[in-house]
Amino acid sequence: MNELTKAHRIADLEDLEAIYGSPSTASIKKEVSYIHPHYQKMVEAASFVVLATSGPQGLDASPRGDPAGFVHVHDEKTLLLPDRRGNNRIDSLRNILHDPRVALFFLIPGVGETLRINGRATITTDPLLLEQFSIAGKLPLSVLVVSVENVFFQCSRAVVRAGLWDSELHIKRSSLPSTGTILQTLSQAGIDGSKYDSELPERLKKTLY
Questions:
Q1: Angle at the Cα of 69 from the Cα atoms of 145 and 67, rounded to 5 degrees
Q2: N or C: less crowded end of the chain, CB within 10 Å?
Q3: For the chain, where do the domains classified as CATH 2.30.110.10 start and end?
Q4: Is the sign of the CA dihedral 198, 202, 205, 209 positive or negative?
Q5: Arithmetic mean of pLDDT over the chain
Q6: Residue pair 155/115 in contact by the 8 Å Cβ criterion
């Protein structure tokens, strides 16, 4: 056992509940098994979603982003999520083939509350569904059809504590290692970091969709 957890490890539910107590009435009442019209407005306002999946190689949390409303509410029990081009690792999709359970975490720029939706996903390349998500004539490579099981909003405490939308707290990208620097180091100079960084802006522009 890790030395950091040995002395004061919480190992059962009784001990855990003794620390945290019972959830408030609001925490229970806010959860529903469908996309309520209030929650639909939050989905339609979100431009960023984290997709969590589980598979034989472990867990994965993958970012998804597009203009607000890019996740479509097909009906109160079904969401449609486009899968745009990326690095082709397809960790999330591999996991879904093994275990369809997914969790979605929606972020709305400027809003403290977030939205959490859990369900089960399937992957489709139905041409009619792909066409729904065309941007500048470019289609997603596939669409996730998510059967909704539970939905609830998360209060704003975490976002407020993080100052997530406070521009005065935003840091300069140059204060962190560049992607090229990271790749050159981890590849033991197998990747030319300077070349990677210099080509990245144009590559992003050409491969965004």
A1: 115
A2: N
A3: 12-162
A4: negative
A5: 96
A6: no
Structure tokens at 9: 């490890």
Out of 5-9, 27-31, 104-108, least confident range: 5-9
For residue 195 the two structure tokens come to: 């070349």
Question: Residues 137-159: what's their mean pLDDT?
Answer: 97
Q: How would CATH label the architecture of 12-162?
A: Roll (2.30)
In 56-100, DSSP assigns E strands to: 58-65, 72-75, 78-83
What phi and psi, each to the nearest 5 degrees, are found at residue 67?
-55, 150
Structure tokens at 72: 């479509």
> Is the pLDDT assigned to residue 176 strictly greater than 70?
yes
**Residues 169-188: what's their mean pLDDT?**
97
Length of the chain: 209
| 61-90 mean pLDDT | 96
Sheet with 72-75, side-by-side order of all strands = 58-65, 48-55, 101-107, 114-124, 142-154, 78-83, 72-75
